[in-house]
Amino acid sequence: MPTIDYILIAIAVILGVAVLVQIIVLTAAGVSALKTMKAAREMGDELRPLMHEAKDLMQTAGQIIKRIEPKLDSAATDLAEIARTAREETDRISASAEEINERIRRQAERMDNMTTSALNGVEQAGHLLNVAVGTPARQVSGVVAAARAILGVLLAPRPSRRRAAPQGEPVPEPPNESRRYAPER
């Protein structure tokens, strides 16, 4: 059985090896940190001019904004005024358009009434003309037809006496002249 001295020596050796491993790891971490710091310093040296330019750019932008700010306020005010004026003009144009539309509707209605009245007058005049001229014309036409019929009967040659028809044959009738010249209805 091992004695306690051997056990203590084994523990001391294990602790020594552990401390040695820890020193190696910490040294590697330190070297890595040094390399990283050196790379960061180099990057910082490269970025310093860019940061200086960015700072100058920020200052210039700030100065521009300070100079433009009153103009932007003025432009915003002007834009609001333009929008208000445009709205008022739109309302005025809309009202004018409605008024013009109403006037056109009234004129169209007036023209329709005038046209209807004129056409009704023409229709009545045509009817009156038809009655005034048509009725006497029909009467004159009837008188002329009657006169022709009378003249036709009077001026027609007289038929000779009837001859005797043989037994069983009908006797032909002379043509009726008064029917030929009777007025047409």
In terms of topology, how is this protein built?
Layout: H1 4-155, H2 177-180
Describe this structure in words.
There is one protein chain. By secondary structure, this protein is mainly alpha-helical. It has a domain at 4-126. The chain has two helices and no strands. It starts with a helix and ends in a 5-residue tail after the last helix.
Q: Could you say which structural class the secondary elements and strand pairing correspond to?
A: mainly alpha
Strand content: under 5%
User: Can you write the helix and strand succession as a string?
Assistant: HH
| Biggest pleated-sheet summary | none
pLDDT < 50 runs, ≥5 residues: none
Features:
185 residues; mainly alpha
Brief sketch in words of this structure:
84% of the residues lie in helices and 0% in strands. The protein is mostly helical and 185 residues long.
